[in-house]
Each structure stands twice: as C-alpha cells, then as structure tokens.
C-alpha cells in the first residue's frame, strides 16, 4: 500500500484552484440540497393543495403570540389555529385555559414538532395537532379561531369562516388582516400586529342575504382556483 497517497491527494486538493466548473458544481449541489429540503421537509402534505392556496411556514414571534392571546382575553371554550405550524399558539392557548385547543396543519414534520413541543411541556394529552387541510375542516361551532396565513388566501378564507362560524365566534388574524372585514380591536405593531374580528359584526357588511356562500360553492371556487394553477 502506498502510505503517501492520502497526503499527496490532500496536497493536490489544497493547491488546486476552483475553476468555473467547480463553482458550477457547488452551486448545483447547493441548489439541489435546498430543493430536497423544500420537497422533503417543507412541502409534504401540500401536493394536493392548489399552488395559490399554499402558504409557507413562518413561526409567529413571541410578541405576535402575546398580541394574539391578548385579543382572546376574557374568552373561554375551544380554540383552533388554522395552519398551526410548530404548535406554539395552540400550546399557549391551552396554558391560558382554552379547551380543547386544536391545531390543523398539513406539514407532517411540523405536526410532529408541535407534538414534541407539547410533550416536552407536559401537555401532550391536553392539546391536539391534526394533520388536516384547513380548507376541509368543518368549523361549525368553533368559537375562538386564529390564523396566520398569507394575504393571498385570506379573502377565500373569509368566505369559509362566514359560512361556518357561529355569530359569537371571535377570529384573530396575526401579521396580515382580513381584506374586507372590520376589526373591532388591534393589538401590537409592525409584524407582530394582530386583528380581532367579531363574526356577528362581519356578516351584514360583506354579504347580502342571498350572497352567503354555501359549502358547495366554496368548494367549487377552490376547485376553480386549482384548475387555474
Ligand atoms: C405562517 S405559518 C403560521 C404557523 C403558526 N400558526 C404560527 O403562528 O406560528 C402558516 C402555516 O400554515 C400551514 N398551512 C398552510 N396551508 C395549510 C392548509 N391548507 N392546511 C393546513 N395547514 C396549512 C403551513 O404549513 C404553515 O405551517
């Protein structure tokens, strides 16, 4: 065996300059790694969701969670986070007495992470994280709902919430407000801001009696959007 071979190879590696081809290989490798992370870790669960309705994961800041929970102060009962990410808001809602506290999240990695956080905090039996498409969740009867989603989907979500939620429901939007609703209270500043909406107050403003969307025409709209992507 030639004992000098590894040293020689190392010396050659050290003295060799990166040519254009080397740079291209590194760039391609980095691109592939990022793509693999997107497909394997961030993207799973979203294959059946139309592109226009896909919302990336950005965790709420601590200040944002505080603003959201301040707006729910004085309320009780069930709590839902639509697109619950790593579960931080659901966990905080549980700590503040909401029960059941439920998060709906499509990304299986985030669902696992949320369950792990709840387990680590000793609350895994009291909170629940479900891997479900928020557009397919029946929200009838939910009283306390929070969302932190992209502005592009909030208009369609308004319709779903108006169709399904009871009058005494409170909806809190983090970071981005609903485009057509009037909040009755706003908390925080900049990216941490949150908006509170009473469902009863929204109904007469946005839809006339015959315009209130049904579940089936809402589904049609989602399908139409799917077709247009
Ligand atoms: C901006 S993050 C907010 C995460 C969390 N609510 C928070 O405040 O930290 C939006 C989350 O919604 C999830 N999401 C997007 N579309 C979804 C869908 N159709 N059904 C369920 N979850 C969805 C994403 O995976 C992402 O985790």
From TrEMBL:
Residues 212-221 have a biased composition (Polar residues). Gene3D superfamilies: Vaccinia Virus protein VP39 (3.40.50.150). The chain crosses the membrane at residues 20-42. GO terms for biological process: methylation; regulation of mitochondrial ATP synthesis coupled proton transport. GO terms for cellular component: mitochondrion. The gene is antkmt. Belongs to the ANT/ATPSC lysine N-methyltransferase family. The lineage of its organism: Eukaryota, Metazoa, Chordata, Craniata, Vertebrata. This is Adenine nucleotide translocase lysine methyltransferase. InterPro entries: FAM173A/B, SAM-dependent_MTases_sf. The keyword Repressor does not apply. It comes from Cyclopterus lumpus (Lumpsucker).
């Amino acid at each position: 065996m030639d004992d000098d071979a590894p040293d020689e190879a190392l010396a050659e590696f050290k003295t060799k300059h990166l040519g254009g081809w080397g740079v291209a290989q590194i760039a391609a490798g980095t691109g592939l790694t990022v793509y693999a992370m997107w497909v394997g870790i961030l993207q799973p669960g979203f294959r059946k969701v139309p592109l226009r309705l896909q919302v990336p994961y950005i965790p709420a800041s601590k200040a944002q969670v505080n603003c959201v929970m301040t707006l729910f102060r004085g309320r009780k009962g069930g709590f839902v986070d639509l697109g619950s990410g790593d579960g931080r808001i659901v966990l905080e809602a549980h700590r503040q007495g909401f029960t059941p506290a439920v998060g709906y999240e499509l990304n299986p990695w985030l669902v696992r992470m949320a369950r792990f956080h709840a387990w680590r905090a000793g609350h895994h039996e009291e909170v629940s994280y479900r891997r479900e498409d928020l557009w397919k969740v029946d929200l009838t009867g939910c009283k306390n709902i929070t969302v932190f989603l992209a502005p592009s989907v909030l208009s369609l979500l308004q319709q779903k919430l108006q169709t399904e939620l009871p009058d005494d429901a409170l909806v809190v939007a983090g970071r981005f407000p609903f485009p057509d609703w009037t909040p009755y209270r706003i908390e925080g500043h900049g990216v941490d801001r949150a908006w509170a909406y009473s469902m009863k107050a929204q109904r007469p403003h946005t839809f006339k009696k015959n315009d209130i969307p049904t579940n089936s025409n809402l589904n049609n709209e989602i399908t139409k959007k799917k077709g247009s992507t």
